[in-house]
Amino acid sequence: MERKIITTSDGSTTIQLVDWNEQYHSIHGAIQEAYHVFIKHGLSLFENQKVNILEIGFGTGLNAIITSIEAEKINLAIHYVGVEAFPVKQEEIAQLNYITQLEAEDFKNQFELMHACQWEKEEQISKNFLLTKQQKDFTEIKASDTFNLIYFDAFGARVQPELWTEEIFSIMFKALKENGVLVTYAAKGSVRRAMQAVGFLVEKLPGPPGKREMLRARKISTKS
């Protein structure tokens, strides 16, 4: 499948899968989307604590690096697990302009280490950021009652509908701790219904640039 680096509306780059007309991030702004969906409506719910994060679709590492940047601001210790079936090539990573666009030169070494470190091994990226990259299909996730927050950033249902099913969201529900949160850029009714069917309490929120809505799902405790 042909892949190329493109520039999105906020000046940040992403990878486009030409045959699918699908991108790793929004063409309306890769960085803007990441901040809106995963930081504003996800990470910002946590402060001054240890947060276990599962990312579905590690991809370019954009969500991971902005999480590291923002975690320092609100005093979080992060254990980050990024699952990716098809890792992005180093030559593609070298063409991405996230550090420049984020004005985050102090985090350049962290970003490089995130991509250079071994898969299937815990790596201390910084004092407050522990990363484990796992190369596997999302259906192979076996975690139970482990994560406070899930970044669900898979390719869209238009091109990979199998990633937005009750089967997948059941795995996500099991992986979350009670009162854990899942955030995603998606807002399709079929996605919302699949989440609700496995037990999530789902809310619609204003979407990032170019999207009217997004979804946030919570695993609410059923204990009295």
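[next item in queue]
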Amino acid sequence: MDRPKQRGRGRPPKCIDGRLETRQALVRAGVVALTERGFALTGIDDVLTRVGVPKGSFYYYFASKEAFGAALIDSYATYFDRKLDRWLGDRRRPPLLRVRDFMDDARLGMARHGYRRGCLVGNLGQEMASLPESFRARLIEVLHGWQARLQRCLEEAREVGDLAADHDCAQLASFFWIGWEGAVLRAKLERRAAPLDCFAEGFLALLGMAGSVSEQSRFIQEE
């Protein structure tokens, strides 16, 4: 009977379950924890336990909790940039409907997790007074990237005549993310979709799409 091979001391296992690299698994678990509880309440031990990594292995992958947090911001930013590019960059759909589609998808995503997960960037922004100062510039950079994507979509709408020519697309994009992050925070607090619906209705009305959410959207109905 073959005996299982014993791993020597030193380097931690490269893979956790044969699918995810250990570092990737730690980042994924950390992102989930931060969207649920925030940075201050996310203990390194909790993340290690979720992934099944020995406590002494953490500093092989990350120099500090601050470095871990920076990696989580980068990972979430990459994921969310792709999501925005998928929805707001879909040229098969009219520009303003893309905005509505993104909000529909975000609402469904929060509902799928019982409104327990919010936005990692928004959560960290709420905690900024107690976070490493190095996070501030990166969070602002991420938000500006999101604004730029929405601004381009709104400018397309203006160019094709779906948005009034006097609308300031940069200002609208900034307004959207300030309000949407607040709606996500409140939806998580109340564990229901009403804050998201309220903001979506108001923003679409501002764009000249009054009534589109209730009449055309794919929003799931509250019980």
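[queue empty]
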